[in-house]
């Protein structure tokens, strides 16, 4: 029988693999602690953060469990302690029970947390008359916000109205056209009121993402997707494009400025007076 040159455990490899596994674990634990989560200034962000934490706690428990088992196997069945292979194998059913327990936890997370959060995000939209409604139109490489103005009615738009100075194809003969307005890059919304955004794209696929307000929604040409969030604090938040959309994707930023209702009404009145073309189009 040919002997392998080294018997037993390779301790260098053992400690190197332990280190490689422990470093990312510490990093994840550090990041999911509530103090290190991205700032949350929206009403619906708390439940999303809870879900992220619970999923990571379960994954952490599985990781520690598997890691413990891995080290146990390395030590218990190394060549010195187990010179002859046991062909009968494991007879205990402990692993089956453990798998069942993990499956139950996963089912609770999915049915009890993930599906309700998801259904509220994609199904329970605020009523238009109780929300701030904005049509967000993405284009390479800018965010545009189309506001209806003080009376809250959008004019119609259609591809046939497209022209050099009418990129969004607004119907200029529509009576509501005059008080509608489009802003480039910087959106403004009032605090404490649901915001309903209808997201679309003029060219390629983009993704409207604002992490502190916990909103992320793809913008797909030819389609309009509604999304909603309720800002709870005053502030200015960065919008990013979360879908690689071309050479200047990295620079496709915008802002959502959350102001008081009075300031918002003042801003809307001012912009609306300036008309639909004010601030619209590519800057
Ligand atoms: Cu983009």
Concise synopsis of the structure shown:
This protein is of the alpha+beta class and 283 residues long. It has 4 helices and 10 strands, in the order H-H-H-E-E-E-E-E-E-E-E-E-E-H. The protein folds into 2 domains: 11-81 and 92-122; 128-274, Immunoglobulin-like.
Could you characterize what this model shows?
This protein has 283 residues and is of the alpha+beta class. It has two domains: 11-81 and 92-122; 128-274, Cupredoxins -  blue copper proteins (Immunoglobulin-like). 34% of the residues lie in helices and 20% in strands. It contains four helices and ten strands; from the N terminus they run H-H-H-E-E-E-E-E-E-E-E-E-E-H. The strands form two sheets. It has a five-stranded mixed β-sheet with strand order 3-2-1-5-8. Strands 4-10-9-6-7 form a five-stranded mixed β-sheet, covered by helices on one side. Helix 1 packs antiparallel against helix 2 (45-76) and helix 2 (45-76) runs antiparallel to helix 3. The longest helix is centred in the N-terminal third of the chain and has 32 residues, at 45-76. Residues 278-283 have low confidence and may be disordered. The chain binds copper (II) ion. Copper (II) ion (CU) is lined by residues 138, 206, 241, 243, 245, 249, 252. Copper (II) ion binds next to loops.
